[in-house]
Amino acid sequence: MSQTTERQFLLDSRGTSRELGAFVVGAAFDRTGAVAAFALGDGTVRLTPPHPTMDWPVVEAHDGTVLAIAADARPGFVTGGDDGRFLRIGPDGTVTELARFGSKWVEHVAAFADARSGVLACSVGKSAHLFTVAGQPLKTLTHPSTVTGLALDSKGKRVAASHYNGCSLWFVAAKTDSPRFMEWKGSHTGVVLHPAADAVVTSMQENSLHGWRLADGQHMRMSGYPSKTESMSFTRSGKWLATSGAESIVLWPFFGGGPMGKAPTELAGGDNVTCTRVACHPQHEAVAAGFSDGLVALADIGTGRILPAVPPGHGAVSALAWSADGSRLALGTETGFAALIDFTPR
Amino acid sequence: MSDSLVPVTVLTGYLGAGKTTLLNRILSENHGRKYAVIINEFGELGVDNDLVVDADEEVFEMNNGCVCCTVRGDLIRILSGLMKRKGGLDGIIIETTGLANPAPVAQTFFVDDGVRARTRLDAIVTVVDAKHLLARLEDSHEAEEQVAFADVIVLNKTDLVTPEELDVVEARIRTINRFARIHRTSRAAVAIDQVLDQGAFDLARVLEREPGFLDSDEHSHSDSIISMSFEVSRPIDPEKFNAWMSTLLAEKGQDMLRTKGILAYANDDRRFAFQAVHMIADGGFIGPWAPDGERKSKLVFIGRNLNRPQLRRGFEACQAGVYQAVAASA
User: Fold this and answer.
1) What angle (nearest 5°) sits at the alpha carbon of residue A245, between those of residues A242 and A247?
2) Is the Cβ pair B63, A227 closer than 8 Å?
C-alpha cells in the first residue's frame, strides 16, 4: 500500500474528522444509523450532529474513563465506565443510569433488539448482568473468574462470556441458569459468536485464538500471531473470521469444515505495521481494518482489493464501527483522532 | 526503559505489617502528583485517594511450557484501562494481599506486551513487622518470598523491639536478600522518595549500590531462601552467557526467585542489564560504561538450593576467551 499517494484516501473526499483530545475507547452507530458515538478516555461520549458542519455534542457520561460502548436496543447507546456505572445515552445526549456497581468497573456492554424483544447486558467483575430493554434487571450470570468479553448472538437468544479457562454460553430466556461451559486451559481475553451460531471463538493471552464448534464441541486452535488479538469480527455470511494482532488482516475460513488444518488468508499486509482493529462490513464480504500507524483501509475479501480510507499519522487505531446498512464507517485512535467515512454511492 | 513509561510500585507485606499505613502516608504526601492505587478487596484500612481500583488478584497460568509462569490477569486488564485515561498518571501503586507471592505481579511486567509498552515495574517494596517477622518467616513461605523479592524493605514497628532484637531481624533479612535497601521505621514513617521512583527494577542502581560484594561462604542447605552474588572482570561472551543462563533457568528456574545482572559484553561500550523472575528473563542495553571506570560484570541470585561453586564456575565460563571442556555424547 506504500505506493498510494495522499490524495487517494477516502478521508479527504468522503470524510469528516475531529481531534477529540482523548483516547477513543470505542465507536458505534445507533440502530437508526442516524447518530454515531465515540467513547473517550476522559469519560465523555461525543455524538455526531445532524449536520456535518456543526459542532459534535459532548455528553458528560462517566467520571473517569468510558470502557465500553454499544448501540442500545432503542435509538442511542449503552456505555460502561470505570466509575462503576452502566448508562444509557439517548440520541439527543440524555444520560440515564441503568445500574451502579460501586468501585467495580463496568468493562463490557452489549445490546440486542428485534421487533418483539430485546436485551441489554454488561459485565462487572465475575458477573454478567442482563436487563430488559426498559432497563429492568433481568438476571445476573456468575462466572468462575472475571468476564473479559461479552457477546450476544445474532438473535439475542444467547450470551457468551469469556474468562479464565474458557467461555460460558448462556440462554438469555432460560428458566434455570446453567451455562454450557466451553473449557480450554488458559487466559481468554475476548469472545465473538459466529452469526449462524456455528462456533464461538475467544482470543487468548498467548497470542492465539481458541474456538469451539457448537454442534459437537470440536476444539480449534488458531495461532501464529506476533501479538495479542484485540479485535475479531465475522463477516455477515459467517464464512470468514477477520482478526487483528498481525501485520496484515488475518482471515480464518469458517466454511468447508472450518479453519482446522488450513492457512488463513492475509490481506493488506506488507508494511510491517500491526493491525489493531477489524470490522466486517454488515452487508458485503469486505472488512475494514485499522493499523498501529493510523492507517485505515477497506479490503474486499473476494478480490483482495484494498481501498485506502485514512492515511497513517493520526495514532494507533483503537475503534472501528460500521453503520447497520454499511453506508458509513466510524473510526477513532489512541491519540484522540475520530472520523466518519461516507460510502454511499454518488 | 524510556521515561514515558508510567512507574509502578508494588507494595507487599504480611497482614498487619503496616502496608496500608505506608500507602496512606505516601498518598497524603504526594505533592500534587497523580497516582492510581490498585488495592485488593481484603484491604485492612480505607485508602484515601481519588483513583482507587478494586482488584481481585486473579493469578493465571501461562500456557508457554513454563511451569512456574503465572501472571496477574486482573492487572493486565486494569493497567490497560488506566492507560486510556486522559491526562496520564505520575505513578501506579499496587497493594497486594498479605498472603500474596510477588512473583506473578513481577512476571506480569515481563510477559504482557501491552503492559510493557506503557508501564515499567519501578520497585517491589515490602513492609515487614520487626516484632513478628522472625516468627512469620518460620511459618510462611509467602513472608519469605516477599522479603526475597523486595527492592526496598520497610522494617516497620522498630519501637516494639530492642536495638539488639532489631539487629537480629535485619541480619535475618540479609541472609534472604542482601541487595534490598532497608529502612528502619516506626508507624511506616519513611520518606516518599525512599519508596517511589526508585528505578530499582532497572537494577543498575541496585548493583552499583552493593558495597564490595562481600562473598561469604554460606550456602543453602535447607529449603530457605538465600542470596549470593558474583563478579568477573573479563568481558562476557553474549552467546555463552545466553546458553548458560537459559539452561540454568530452564532447569532451576522454580528455585530461582530473582536473578539480576549488569554485564560487560566483549566489543560493546554499553552496559547490558539482565534480569529474570523464575524462568522468565529479559535484558537490554542501559547506557555506556564510565569511560575510565572498570568494567566488571556482576550477577546476583536470590533463591532456594543455590549451589555457589556451580554458579560461580558457570558464570566464569561465560567470559570471552575462556577455554573449557565439557562432557558430550555422540
Assistant:
1) 95
2) no
Give domain B221-316's CATH number out of 3.40.50.300, 3.40.50.2000, 3.40.50.720, 3.30.1220.10. Answer: 3.30.1220.10
Q: With helix as H, strand as E and coil as C, how does A240-279 read?
A: EEEECCCCCEEEEECCCCCCCCCCCEEECCCCCCCEEEEE
Three-state DSSP class for A289?
strand
Suggest the residue from A205, A207, A230, A334 to mutate for an interface test with chain B (most B CBs closer than 10 A).
A205
- Of B21-35, B83-97, B157-171, minimum mean pLDDT range: B21-35
Q: Do B85 and A64 touch (CB under 8 A)?
A: yes
Say whether residue A22 is in contact with chain B using an 8 A CB cutoff. Answer: yes
Query: Which residues of chain B make contact with A21, given a CB cutoff of 8 A?
Result: 86
- A309-329 as b/e: b if 16+ CB within 10 A: bbbbebbbbbbbbbbeebbbb
The answer as to whether A139 is a domain residue is: no
Strands A328-333 and B51-55: unpaired
- The position carrying cell 459437537 is A216
Strand partners, B301: B228, B259
Residues of A in contact with B73 (CB under 8 A): 145-146, 148, 164, 187, 205
Residues (pLDDT < 70) of chain A are 1-7
Q: Does B112 touch chain A (CB under 8 A)?
A: yes
CA distance B114 to A107: 17
Q: How many CB pairs under 8 A join A and B?
A: 73
Total structural domains in chain A?
A: 1
User: Which CATH code fits B6-202?
Assistant: 3.40.50.300
Q: Is the pLDDT of residue B1 over 60?
A: no
Cβ pair B53:A22 closer than 8 A = no
Cross-strand bridge partners of residue B154: B127, B183
Is residue A286 in a domain? yes
pLDDT, position B206: 57
Using one digit for the tens of pLDDT, what is the confidence trace for B230-251?
999 999 999 999 999 999 999 9
Is residue A318 within 8 Å of A23, Cβ to Cβ?
A: yes
